[in-house]
Amino acid sequence: MTVSADTTPQDLGPAPDRVGFRPPAWTITAASVFAFFALWEWFGRDVNPVFGSYPSAIFDAFVVLIKSGKLLNGLIDSLKPFLVGYGLAVIFGVPLGLVIGRFAFLEAALGVYVTAGFAMPLVALVPLLILWLGLGFMVKVAIIFLMAVFPITINAWLGVRAVPKTLIEVGLSFVASPATILRRIVLPATLPYIMAGLRLAVGRAVVAMIVAEFFTSIGGLGGIIINSANNFDTATMFVPVIVIVLLAIGLNWLIGYFERRVAPWQAEIAGRNE
Amino acid sequence: MGIVSLAGVSKRFTIRVAGVPQTVHALQDLSFDVADGEMVALIGPSGCGKTTALRIVMGLERASAGRILVDGEVVNGCGHNRGIVFQHAELLPWLTAYENVAFGLEQKGVRGGELRDTAMRYLELVGLAESASRRPYQLSGGMQQRVGIARALAIDPSVLLMDEPFGALDAQTRETMQAELIEIQARTRKTVLFVTHDLDEAVLLADRVVIMQKGRISQIMSTHLPRPRLDMEAMRSLPQFAESRHRLWQALHSRAAVAA
Ligand SMILES: Nc1ncnc2c1ncn2[C@@H]1O[C@H](COP(=O)(O)OP(=O)(O)OP(=O)(O)O)[C@@H](O)[C@H]1O
Ligand SMILES: [Mg+2]
Q1: Are B139 and B146 in contact (CB under 8 A)?
Q2: Measured between alpha carbons, how far is B105 from A142 in angstroms, rounded to an integer?
Q3: With an 8 Å Cβ cutoff, is A176 touching chain B?
Q4: Is B86 on the interface with A (CB under 8 A)?
Q5: Which three-class secondary structure state does DSSP give residue A69?
Q6: What is the pLDDT averaged over residues B169-197?
């Protein structure tokens, strides 16, 4: 909220922490990205095209991939197991983290598996998962789920432990049931942690998606990467890499948007004016 | 009904200071009764155990020794028959003022139109009807405290426990709220146990004042103002007011001398 009624233009000097010109954050980001691509283009042209590439060549490869329909098909092939695996991880991980954090018995009984699962080198388990689930859709979902579920669970769990006791006591004072305390006090108080977990999990799930495509039936965006690398077509290889990066950024933005929608009070508490 | 009885209540906390366990004796052998419809003030220096005593009566804290009865039943957790106003409001930050008041009512099973009407009525009572849809971070400290008061009053408990309920308010609002409390109490005959640092408030509101010192009761003093006390200005001009206030001041003063 801005208060403007009692301020007059002439007495509004720069606030002490804003000395000089301050452009909006997004222009700085845009300039930085532009400079990055310009430098890459400049130096990338001198590199052997097998060992590296540069933006304009990658763009040309992008156009070719789009026209052939390969990129869109690859994206859809990748997104399907991604969304299912990630979605299951959210549906399963958030409640699990909440109850582990809330009930000491469950924490003692299950906490160790969550901690172990988070540290587990998942790639080592992929061959085993393939033995169990084959090379199709299910194994990709399983790999993505396993990579995403642990950071989500751990964050929800840690979030519950950080909920101020005084807020729980409000529930107790009014004789709220344990379920009500969990849903109406613990869950909203934990939301910032849950959201941080969802963001971490996006990064890990994207890696899992590509790993799954490398190890199982070659397909999706990972398949394009493998195939073009095998053909020493480095420019084409970069296209899905960049698409994946953009995908992750977009998903993170979406989570942030969702967070501001469901938890508008969070920005107030943190003192951010958004 | 709302009879509160504390018998030999003690509370020890074990805390770690720089890794060394220490025992804090927050309450030691506290015994007093609050009669049905009586208003009792707890007064005493910071850290003497007032909040702890209130929390134990509420059922948020378990006594290390002794017994607490409310209407003849041993206190074992919280109940709808008691309502508490916390020292620091403790509103749920994601709920609006209205929703915070409604939260307490919902836990009591109030629904629908009755829920809306009751919550709004108590927000109006504390003068915050216009701020009903603001969240706690958009309210001042005193306004937050008043939402906390509305939340506790709304569930209509027979025992009202208030921890420095008016401490954060300006003098004007404080007197309005004191008058409201007197009026509500006269109408509903609630039992009220409240903490205050304000001598005037203790004398004006309470029938008896429990003076505490280092976790013990140092004195229990009756005020002799007539009830009902709806006209606060008249109360203040009574000789009993000045006399009670002076006795209380002396009691606290002698206690301070002992403590020093
Ligand atoms: N949860 C706790 N853990 C450890 N010590 C505690 C705890 N709660 C209270 N105490 C200690 O118990 C004593 C009494 O605290 P209490 O909060 O009841 O004081 P108070 O009379 O309400 O003080 P104030 O007027 O400042 O609010 C203090 O010494 C405090 O440090
Ligand atoms: Mg206190």
Answers
A1: no
A2: 45
A3: yes
A4: yes
A5: coil
A6: 91
B4-81+157-259 fold: Rossmann fold (3.40.50)
Contact A221, A243 (CB under 8 A): yes
**pLDDT for res B57:** 97
Residue B106 near residue B80 (C-beta atoms within 8 A) = no
- For B242, other C-beta atoms within 10 Å of its C-beta total 12
Look at the block and give the residue holding tokens 């979406």: A254
On whether any CB of chain A is under 8 Å from the CB of B2, the answer is no
CATH homologous superfamily, domain A79-261: MetI-like (1.10.3720.10)
Does the C-beta of B211 come closer than 6 Å to ligand 1? no
Cβ of B60 and A188 within 8 Å? no
pTM over 0.80: yes
Q: Are strands B39-43 and B159-163 parallel, antiparallel or unpaired?
A: unpaired
The CB density around residue A253, as the number of other CB atoms within 10 Å, is 10
Give me chain A's average pLDDT, please.
88
CA–centroid distance, B197 to ligand 1, in Å, is 15
Contacts of A1 in chain B (CB under 8 A): 138
Q: By the CB < 8 Å criterion, does A185 face chain B?
A: yes
Q: Break chain A into its structural domains and give their ranges.
A: 79-261
pLDDT at B229: 84
Which one of B30, B48, B56 would you pick to mutate in the ligand 1 pocket, going by the greatest count of ligand atoms within 8 A of its CB?
B48
Answer yes or no: is pLDDT of B54 > 60. Answer: yes
pLDDT level of residue B258 (50, 70, 90 thresholds): low
pLDDT for res B256? 54
CA distance A174 to chain B (A): 6
- Cβ B27 vs Cβ B215: under 8 Å: yes
Look at A229 and A35; give whichever has higher pLDDT.
Answer: A35
Ligand 1 nearest atom to the CA of residue B48, by list position: 21
Distance B195 CA to ligand 2 centre (A): 8
Provide the residue type at A20 as one letter: G
Beta bridge pairs of residue B210: B42, B220
Task: Tell me the average pLDDT across A218-223.
Answer: 85
